[in-house]
Design a protein that fits this description.
- This protein is mainly α.
- Helix 3 packs parallel to helix 6.
- The two termini are 27 Å apart.
Length: 147
């Protein structure tokens, strides 16, 4: 329900193209995730190295979400919400992500141990910064899609 509300808000504030790109991104992510889930974990030893897992996770999330957001789409409702916050309040996307992620982590403190919250804080801060950096990358070709 929350995702639908966030996508609806994105459609209202960011337009029809946002909804189309978001649909493609969401379906692509879901299909890719379903395929990957059929295999054993790629790096199972990451569970014993939470700092490394937090850093690698931040890079993958930052790059993946960064490129989706750059073209104007959102993979999930929280991405759509961050884009709407950035649009309405005229703040950089990385700070909008940080606001939404900190809210989720604050609520998660009721059931997640504080040590895991600390690693999650690292991940959300770094991934948001990577998303912001990707937004600043110069566009190469005239016919490329750049937000």
């Amino acid at each position: 329900v929350a995702n639908v509300i966030c996508y609806g808000l994105g459609w209202k504030l960011l337009g029809r193209t946002f909804l189309i790109y978001s649909g493609v991104a969401t379906v692509s992510f879901s299909v890719f995730y379903a395929i990957i889930e059929q295999f054993e974990p790629l790096w199972p030893w990451f569970a014993d190295m939470p700092l490394l897992a937090a850093l690698v996770g931040a890079v993958f999330v930052g790059i993946g979400c960064g490129f989706c957001v750059r073209v104007g789409g959102a993979v999930s409702g929280d991405d759509a919400l961050a884009m709407c916050i950035s649009h309405v309040f005229h703040i950089k996307i990385q700070w909008a992500y940080l606001i939404t992620d900190l809210t989720v982590l604050a609520l998660s403190m009721t059931y997640i141990p504080i040590t895991k919250i600390i690693y999650s804080l690292l991940t959300v801060f770094l991934s948001g910064q990577i998303i912001g950096w990707i937004q600043k990358l110069p566009c190469g070709k005239k016919d490329s899609i750049c937000a």
